[in-house]
Amino acid sequence: MRFVPQEQWEQSYTDGIVFGPLGEDERKLLAERAPAPAGGGRALEVGCGTGELAVHLAAGGYRVDAVDLAEAALERARADRPGAAGVRWLRLDIEHDDPEPLGDELYDLVVFRLALAFIGDRARVLHALGRRLREGGTLLIVTPVAATTPADRRRIAVDDREISALTSGWKEVRRYAAGDLAVLVLRGPCAGTVAVERQHPLTGPAATAALAVVTDPSGRVLLGWSHHGMWELPGGRPSGPESFEAAAVRELAEETGLLAEESDATVLSMLADAAGGVPRLTAVVRISRWSGSLGDPEADRFAHWEWHDPHGLGCLGRTFAPAARALDAVWPGVVPDLPAVRAHPHATPPPAVPCESPEAERRREAMVRAVVDGD
Question: How does DSSP classify residue 193?
Answer without folding.
Answer: -
